Amino acid sequence: MVSTLKTEFLSLLSVSFVSENGVVAAGHDCRPMLLNSDDRGCLTIVSKLDIPKQSIRRDMSAMDRFRNMDKRATTEDRNIALETLHQSSITQVSVYEVDKQDCRKFCTIGIDGAMTTWDEGLVITNFPKFCLPNKLFHLTLIFQ
């Protein structure tokens, strides 16, 4: 079965099954999304899993100034940080912890190598047997 979902978000790069009908998908939008499939195979977005953090205005320290010169080729204090945990595209979504049939934690890895483990009260039930950690089914989408 093939299901297509058109969204206003940027392209997805990686998806992982977290339940019989649920997948976590992430990509260039820098935040993972929980998708659900109904009995007919139609995909819907349940929620974005990364809540934007509140920005705090502060003076730039010498270390921050040096870091910006190195990473961003600038010495100015521009607000270029994203309001997400990941500051770059997410390239991989993997199941991290399973308890019986419940997906308790999953992790995402950004293109910059940053890894985030998601476990904020997340319990995804009916974890499919073919996705247990020793037989993890991982699907990576490639857009051309």
UniProtKB/TrEMBL annotation:
- Name a GO molecular-function annotation: actin filament binding
Q: Where in the cell is it found?
A: Cytoplasm; Nucleus
Asked whether the UniProt record includes Transcription among its keywords, one would answer no
GO CC annotation: Arp2/3 protein complex; cytoplasm; nucleus
Q: Which GO BP terms, alphabetically?
A: Arp2/3 complex-mediated actin nucleation
| UniProt entry tagged with the keyword Transcription | no
Sorted alphabetically, which keywords does the UniProt record give? Cytoplasm, Cytoskeleton, Nucleus, Repeat, WD repeat
What is the top-level taxon of the source organism? Eukaryota
Q: What protein am I looking at? A: Uncharacterized protein
Q: Which organism is it from?
A: Spermophilus dauricus
Classification from the root reads: Eukaryota, Metazoa, Chordata, Craniata, Vertebrata
